[in-house]
Write a structure and sequence with these properties.
With 119 residues, this protein is an all-alpha fold. The protein has two domains: 1-45; 62-103. 78% of the residues lie in helices and 0% in strands. The chain contains five helices and no strands. α1 (3-20) runs antiparallel to α2 and α2 (27-45) crosses α3. The chain starts with a helix and ends in a 9-residue tail after the last helix.
Amino acid sequence: MTPVKIILILFLLIVLRMFLVQKSLTVIKRVVAFLMFFILLTLVLFPDLSTLIANFIGVGRGVDLVFYFSHLFLLLLIISLWRRTIVLMTDITKLSRTLALQNPNKPREQKGQTDDKAE
């Protein structure tokens, strides 16, 4: 086994562990994580397999196939994070509006300060 394979396998194990430590993961997300781990582990251990799959699909090299799929995955990830950010921004806006309506006093009035200057 070459050093790069050992490094990639260790990296995959670290990423899998970091992913599975999260408490909020559903069963489906855990299954998908294990499935992705074993697919990537198989491609690391048997790199010629990616070339066979690429040739079957109609792509020239296995590296190109991995490259194309990684770009699709990253695009999906960006879209997912973008949508989640919009939802979080909407939630923050609703919370800040609710807090503003619950506490209509000016900030200076809360601290006992007034706008009148002392003479």
